[in-house]
Amino acid sequence: HSTPLTSCQAIDSIEQSNSTLNAFVSYRTKDDIAKSEPQNGPLKGWPVGIKANIAMTTASTTCASKVLEGYTSPFKATAVEALEKAGAVIVGKTNMDEFGMGSKNLYSKYGPARNPFRPDDTVGTEIYDYSPGGSSGGSGAAVAAGMCRVALGSDTGGSVRLPGAWCGIVGYKPTYGRISRYGLVPYGSSLDTVGIMARTVEDVLSTFKAICIPDHRDMTCMSESLRKRINDMAKSRPWVNKLYEVSPGESLEIKQPLKGMRIGIPRECWVEELSEPALESWKAGARRLADLGCEIVAVSLPHLPYSLPTYYTIALAEASSNLARYDGIRYGRRSSEKPDDLHNCNASNKYANTRSEGFGVEVQRRILLGTYVLSAQTCEQYYIPSQKIRRLIQQDFDSVFALPNALHAESALAKSRLLTSRPAGVDALLFPTSTNTARLLESKEKNQAAGYVNDVMTVPANLAGIPAISVPAGKKNGMPLGLQLSAQYGDDELLLRIASHLQ
Ligand code: GLN
Q: Which domain of life does this protein belong to (predicted)?
């Protein structure tokens, strides 16, 4: 768009394309929007989509699950509240995989969202049979198709980055704890983040600034003092200081020279599944950063190959506990089968029936697996080792970044490392977002675990709590590819500044 999208234009495109793309599960009318003037703020009038697992009081929050059919939250998510305060106009709720569990937006009670991109040979037809990626597939398709300027998604293991890559837009997962999770329906609480999707890194940064605030209602949201420590550390690096300099009145504060940055290429991301086009775009991205004055170095994150099984153990364990609350009594749908009397000795059937009818097949599979890995007999075999490996993965990342981890580093030690001449280590990592372009919605995986392979590049950042962003990186046969950048815990601003050069 040469001129920014207005909320009226956004509703027009939703009305025009939603029956094909199924990106929104509910949306407002122009009349309804016209009734209230947006607040004055940096996002004034920006049409924004909100993923169906983020709470609003004016539309239902179903997480695309039958179990939450008709459920409207009595409170608003902090991120939504902050967006409205900044002037954004919420236009509707976007489609997703049920409770965030999936990578193709296939598991939704509303049916799949569809990728607005098609291979070159189907352009001109009415066929849209590629996945937009998941689980925030609706948000990805909506931004790519001009149905909103920005969309919020959630990212537990890649759910904004994979749809970002497959829909040719920017998908950003912040450092864990920078954006409040209050009002984001939990999946894996130690991994969950609110993510931001937009066409440009600049729009992502403006949105991030509006919603990156401390919040006492989420105990894992970063305190004011930790935010200050991170900020001080980030700015004590003489070699990146110029990236934070903004001339007065300069609106585009994001593109500052990258000369002197050091970018790491993790060897372990060169996986067997990596397709030729993904490899080519990875090389092209590295060349581009080198041309801009970055030093490109190979690094090793030895425990990275264990990320996928570690993630699918921890995420599912947490999910099995988080999803226990959907019993048909407190929220949403209740089985109509007898018995009705909870004091009856068969009352547990009421819960069981509600859950059997309300949860889809993938969610049930994950609750079962999660319950299994947490059970007394197997906990020591799967869950505990996964937590240990998670720590090793975090340490791998700490060992390659020049900036110490603000969570673990003694501040004196951190300072001494930074104030001397430039320490060893890289400022950011560059690797593909996905092993390939979008998959067909219908493609049958050989087995269930084969479908999980889509997440191999994205889950490490969630395990480590570090920020990561996917930016568009060319196309193959008309289908977009994404490249990913990741940085040290809390180093989000630097990450966005580097990413703005790649888009
Ligand atoms: N595809 C991953 C999963 O199914 C990640 C999902 C997410 O980030 N919400 O768990």
A: Eukaryota
